[in-house]
């Protein structure tokens, strides 16, 4: 065919129709239409200590997963599903920092979360600031996360050590004794918990004195030595910040040495069935502690969460599951408000953000990016391998946030810009 015939054929009606049809097919294949071209997921990097803190860590991830499933079933955020990219830190801050860098630079996550141990959370927080990526800490407690070492990219859901210590110091100040001993793991969280409890109890009761400070290494407590040293100081009360296996060993040693007889214990953690050997069936008798009366909370939000959790995992939720669930709800609310934006846009959206939780509405205070989630405080006992909580009250975290002047005295000015 010569050039004239080719030119004539391209201008014929049949040729034009063939050309247009081919272009339409090519365009249809290129566009994200149909079920095989789903909207791009919003990637969330989750770093945690699943093996180091196996029971609590798994419950936390269960809560995250349940919330994520519910959010995606409802259409995700702006039509985009949420996707978790999970990394294990083994309780090691350096490994967690490496994971955070990889999640930001290689996996291109839009949000970071996780970090149950306080020193790990601080390491991830530093990387989040360097990578200008929002980090929502769900479980770690140290005040430094939102105060001394806070930055504009880091938010925290769980009540801080200051908030929980304030709740417990308020109760401890009403007890008649004035001689106090403390026991806490010798790392970031334990040091922060003791400092806040001492500060706040002294403010409420200037007559109290602290007669023994015990600082076992995390996971390496010499429980009999600790119990003996406390007993020899003859305290009226004991402030406990140990948890997990350390708490189990401390309870067992204290029970053997009759440490707790006639002494009131105020505890940041309550030992439940997963953490105490059934042979120590009555080791804890009415400790004043922060706990979780999961089967007694009548809030509609909690009932919905409980029913869904029991159906999904066939086991009772731990308190860490509430933190995991609430953390994912906070992330989704922030992404929705920012219209899927990340970095600076998401920071601004999350300051002052209100979101739902199994314990009612919660918000992030803009001043320090700490959530107003509260805690249950009451009398915790252990019997027949099971824990029970009575005479409890849910204390709204908003009433126990550090005073603004206190925050400004400790939080870097750059973190509030």
Radius of gyration: 26 Å
Number of strands: 14
Question: What's the rounded overall pLDDT mean?
Answer: 87
Q: Count of helical segments?
A: 13
What is the string of SSEs from the N terminus onward? HHEHEHEHEEHEHEHEHEEHHHEEEEH
Low-confidence stretches: 1-37, 273-278
Give a short synopsis of this structure.
With 417 residues, the protein is of the alpha/beta class. The chain is built from 13 helices and 14 strands.
Walkthrough of the structure:
The protein is an alpha/beta fold and 417 residues long. 41% of the residues lie in helices and 17% in strands. It has helices at 3-10, 13-30, 54-73, 93-105, 118-130, 161-172, 188-204, 223-232, 244-256, 300-313, 319-337, 343-350, 404-410, and strands at 42-48, 82-88, 111-114, 134-137, 154-156, 179-183, 209-214, 237-240, 264-267, 287-291, 354-355, 362-363, 375-383, 386-395. A seven-stranded mixed β-sheet has the order 7-6-8-9-10-13-14, with helices on both faces. A hairpin with a 2-residue loop joins strand 13 and strand 14. Helix 11 packs across helix 12 (343-350). The longest helix has 20 residues, at 54-73. The N and C termini lie far apart (72 Å). Mean pLDDT is 87; it is low at 1-37 and 273-278.
Comma- or semicolon-separated keywords:
single chain; 417 residues; alpha/beta; seven-stranded mixed beta sheet; five-stranded parallel beta sheet; disordered N terminus
Q: Which SSEs are present, and which pair or pack?
A:
Layout (H helix, E strand, L loop, with lengths): L2 H8 L2 H18 L11 E7 L5 H20 L8 E7 L4 H13 L5 E4 L3 H13 L3 E4 L16 E3 L4 H12 L6 E5 L4 H17 L4 E6 L8 H10 L4 E4 L3 H13 L7 E4 L19 E5 L8 H14 L5 H19 L5 H8 L3 E2 L6 E2 L11 E9 L2 E10 L8 H7 L7
